[in-house]
Write the structure tokens for this entry.
Amino acid sequence: MYRNDWNDHMGYGRGIFMLVICALLVGLIVWLVVSSTRRHHAPGTQLHQPHVGPAPVPAAKPTAQQILDERLARGEIEVDDYRARLEALRAASDSPA
């Protein structure tokens, strides 16, 4: 006679099979999330290594003439003013300090 039971033909096998499939699916999702968010690095190294190498060379201070040239190029001073200031710089560098 027909009983309203779904597990007549498979027994507990179907439930265990579905449990294994769900566990594999959850494991796959977790693995994908972890592997996509982790940085790839060589084994045995830290994720965030400090910068190793030569220290950056500080930029040399611009000379007074270079500053004057830049100001003329940016249009902050006129050519006549530039020439007057340049001559004053040269006169100051020629005189003993």
Observations:
- The first helix runs from residue 13 to 37.
- The two ends are 119 Å apart (CA to CA).
- The chain has a mean pLDDT of 81.
